Amino acid sequence: METLLNDFSVGLFIMQAVILVILIVLMRKFAWKPILDALQSREDGIQNALEAAENAKVEMQNLQADNDKLLKEARAEREAMLKEARELKTKMIEDAKTEAQEQANAMIAQAQAAIESEKKSAMAELKGQVAGLSLEIAEKVVRQELSNKDKQIELVESMLGDAKLN
User: Fold this and answer.
1) Got the DSSP string for the chain?
2) DSSP assignment, residue 28?
3) Is 155 exposed, middle or buried (0-12, 13-18, 19+ CB in 10 A)?
4) In terms of CB atoms within 10 Å, which of 8, 71, 104, 155 comes out highest?
5) In Å, what is the CA distance from 5 to each residue of 2, 8, 13, 17?
6) Mind listing the pLDDT tens digit for each residue in 63-88?
7) Per-residue pLDDT at 145
8) Could you give the CA distance from residue 152 to residue 128 in angstroms, rounded to a whole number?
């Protein structure tokens, strides 16, 4: 350190100080401002990126909320459609049962009417057969009764007696 102090020259010191001041001025004019501008633009870029990230996060939350809302609406709509389909199915089944019951009742009524008609027809035929058989039997009985002359006279008198009473 002593050699430094012994070799110290004031002119050299002033020259180096002037060069240093010029260098500082030049650096400030040409390098410092662009460096500070670059740092500022980088800081602004980072800030913009942070704001964009925050905005994206908020937008994602909004989209998520919208998606949830749409999902709930879709589920509600699906449930409504399923409920409507179930109600329609139930209504169709009930309508089919009612129609089948009405058709069955109509067929039963028609069958009952046919049975009643057949019954009346059979009764009329049976009455006709009974009347025919009765006439045949009466004819045979009358022939037997009338085969004898005395019985014929007696029958005629009895019929005349009945005719007068009526």
Assistant:
1) -HHHHHT--HHHHHHHHHHHHHHHHHIIIIIIHHHHHHHHHHHHHHHHHHHHHHHHHHHHHHHHHHHHHHHHHHHHHHHHHHHHHHHHHHHHHHHHHHHHHHHHHHHHHHHHHHHHHHHHHHHHHHHHHHHHHHHHHHHHHHHHHHTSHHHHHHHHHHHHHHHHH-
2) I
3) middle
4) 155
5) 5, 5, 12, 17
6) 999 999 999 999 999 999 999 999 99
7) 65
8) 28
Cα–Cα distance for residue pair 139/122, rounded to 1 Å: 25
Which token pair is 65? 């909320």
- The DSSP letter of residue 7 is T
Report the C-alpha gap between 144 and 138 in whole angstroms: 10
Please state, in angstroms and as integers, the Cα–Cα distance from residue 160 to each residue in 68, 91, 118, 153, 166, following that order: 112, 78, 42, 11, 10
Q: How many CB atoms within 10 Å of residue 29?
A: 10
pLDDT in tens, 100-157: 999 999 999 999 999 999 999 999 888 888 888 878 877 777 777 667 777 777 777 7
Query: How many degrees, rounded to 5, is the angle at CA 156 between CA 151 and CA 161?
Result: 125
What residue has token string 């430094």?
Answer: 4
Both tokens of 120, joined, read 């009346």
Q: Which amino acid is at 93?
A: I
Residue type, 6: N
pLDDT value of residue 129: 86
